[in-house]
Amino acid sequence: MSFNLLFASVALNIGLTVSIVVGILIILFLGRLFLKRKAETINKWFVVFLYFLTFLLITTAIFFLLYMWDYNLLTYIETLFTDVDTLIAANMGSAVSSLLVIFFALLIMRIAKMSLLNVGKKESPMKKRKQTIAKVVNSIIKYIVSIVAILVVLAIWGVNVAPALAGLGILGLVIGLGAQKFINDLISGFFIVFEHHFDVGDKIEVQGFKGDVVDIGLKTTRIRNWKGDTKIVSNGEISTLINYSRHFSVAIVEFGIAYQEDAQTTIDLLNAELPKVRADYPMIIEDPQVLGVIELANSSVNLRVIAKTLPEQHYAVEREIRKRIKKLLDDNDIEIPFPQVVVNQPKNRD
User: Fold this and answer.
1) Is the pLDDT of residue 175 over 70?
2) I need a surface site. Which of 7, 66, 146, 254 has the fewest CB within 10 A?
3) Strands of 289-296's sheet, edge to edge?
4) CA 62 to CA 65: how far, in whole Å?
5) Do residues 263 and 303 lie in contact, with contact meaning Cβ atoms separated by under 8 Å?
6) Nearest Cα residue to 288 out of 310, 321, 333, 257
7) Is beta strand 301-309 parallel, antiparallel or unpaired with respect to 289-296?
8) Any idea which fold 249-331 has?
9) Cβ-based neighbours of 237, under 8 Å, separated by 6 or more
10) Are 241 and 204 in contact (CB under 8 A)?
């Protein structure tokens, strides 16, 4: 009879436990659904009150379940604190030493980061180069200090790190065989930095993606285009690239005038007026000049204007030159042609 009562009691406890757990899950789901639907209009203090009420409900349910299963929580807490107190007393020296090692490791990494932060801030021909090397050096320091700190902490807690250091050679061989792509990325990263393929801030094109280099790491390079899209490329995959920041750019504008207009007069007019654009656009390093007639097209005589600019600064210059050319041609009654078709009708022989 006592066995039947015990079985019934256990079954009742199991049923109540399952019911309480299911009820809590339903309440959490409904609360999350409510907050999601009312996210834009609900008061933030009501959200705080709802979270507090949910926490109180879950805590009450946990204590009730512990009481229902005759679990003495106070005795467990007292035992836990006693064990923790004994453990802390026995390992206080190791704990303090470990904290000091971690503190000094973080301090070294922080000092290195702050020291390298100002590298390349001053304007100079090597500004981008200095910033790139500073980022790589900071990354190397962080990895080295972290590894040394971990080994020292392990040694403080009685772990024999000598076999670990001796085994790094074998481990490195295993990793090298199993992670050849990772090693290839690291080696490629070193060559990119020290052979000066590109620097942070350069505009490059890799795998059809063109943008500014925002970060160079030992494994990956981040490129952001003018739309804000960021592409992360593994250094080992950068087999070919185009660097647009190493040399000056050239703004090129081509346009046409009608055949009845005098080409030389137009060239002289543009050569006299277009250099004024340079005063408004400091990125132009040489006055715009008209190269001359480049094509005798079907309906127009085409001319070309060029202007040397700072790297990748030619887009705005081209737009401004087109606008100035249009105004100059309009002010001087020089016709800009449009496609025309000449239709010849046979004469009537009657």
Assistant:
1) no
2) 7
3) 249-257, 301-309, 289-296
4) 5
5) yes
6) 321
7) antiparallel
8) Alpha-Beta Plaits (3.30.70)
9) 207
10) yes
Per-residue pLDDT tens digits for 250-302 = 899 999 998 888 899 999 999 888 888 888 888 888 888 888 899 898 888 99
Q: What is the CATH number of domain 93-178?
A: 1.10.287
Distance between CA atoms of residues 249 and 57, nearest Å: 67
- Spatial separation of the C-alpha atoms in residues 328 and 273, rounded to whole Å: 8
Write out pLDDT tens, residues 42-96.
777 777 787 888 888 888 887 777 777 666 666 666 666 666 666 666 666 777 7
Q: Tell me the CATH class for 190-243.
A: mainly beta
Token readout for 96 is 């303090």
Tokens found for residue 65: 């379940």
Displacement of CA 100 from its chain's centroid (Å)? 34
What amino acid is encoded at 152 in this protein?
V
List the alpha helices (DSSP H) in 216-344: 263-273, 277-280, 314-331
- Rounded to whole angstroms, the Cα distance separating 34 from 41 reads 11
- The span from the first CA to the last CA of the chain, in angstroms, equals 132
Please state the domain extents for the chain: 6-71, 93-178, 190-243, 249-331
Q: Using a cut of 0.70, tell me whether the model's pTM lies above it.
A: no
